[in-house]
């Protein structure tokens, strides 16, 4: 399965009680802490199970983490990087972790699917485009007029302006 959602469960352990010696999957050190985390079939110090992007300690922010493409992610970064479903917003097919994607207004697209709805030309980084009612248009095919450069916003912007530039 392309998308992996892994539950991270806190396990209480008594340090130095003669139980099984556990090694941390993050740092490789011996776990002698009173509490540890068990996630992705491995044990972790609570300080070592961190989001690969924001470095948040995952045991402190919830009981769920996500794993994809060799990364361990908090929920917010998983959604930011791969969208809600890990599927292309245009074709609905899953997006492999190693594949480059295009993003617009919180949606994620295969590179081949990020095309103008009118002329079907593929948009690439640097191209100006317009996002109108959930539909992508190239600069030339924008419904209702020409592009005004003062309306351009960065791709990662949280604004809802219809004009966008692929970054």
Question: How would you summarize the topology of this molecule?
Answer:
Layout: E1 4-7, E2 9-12, E3 22-23, E4 30-31, E5 35-39, E6 42-45, H1 58-61, E7 64-68, E8 71-73, H2 75-82, E9 101-104, E10 107-110, E11 128-132, E12 135-138, E13 163-165
Antiparallel strand pairs: 1-7, 2-5, 3-4, 5-6, 7-8, 9-10, 11-12, 11-13
Polypeptide structure, described:
With 167 residues, the chain is mainly beta. It has two helices and 13 strands. 7% of the residues lie in helices and 29% in strands. The strands form five sheets. Strands 1-7-8 form a three-stranded antiparallel β-sheet. Strands 2-5-6 form a three-stranded antiparallel β-sheet, with no helix packed on it. It has a three-stranded antiparallel β-sheet with strand order 12-11-13, with no helix packed on it. The radius of gyration is 21 Å and the shape is elongated. The two termini are 29 Å apart.
């Amino acid at each position: 399965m392309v998308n992996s959602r892994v539950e991270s469960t806190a396990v209480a352990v008594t340090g130095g009680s003669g139980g099984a010696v556990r090694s941390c999957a993050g740092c490789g050190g011996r776990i002698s802490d009173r509490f540890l985390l068990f996630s992705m079939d491995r044990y972790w110090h609570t300080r070592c199970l961190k989001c690969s992007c924001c470095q948040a300690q995952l045991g402190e922010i919830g009981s769920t983490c996500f794993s994809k493409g060799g990364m361990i992610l908090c929920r917010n970064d998983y959604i930011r990087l791969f969208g809600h479903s890990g599927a292309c917003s245009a074709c609905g097919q899953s997006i492999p972790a190693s594949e480059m994607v295009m993003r617009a207004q919180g949606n994620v697209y295969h590179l081949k699917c990020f095309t103008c709805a009118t002329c079907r030309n593929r948009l690439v980084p640097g191209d100006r485009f317009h996002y109108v009612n959930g539909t992508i248009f190239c600069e030339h095919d924008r419904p209702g007029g020409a592009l005004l450069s003062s309306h351009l916003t960065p791709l990662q912007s949280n604004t809802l302006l219809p004009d966008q530039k692929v970054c």
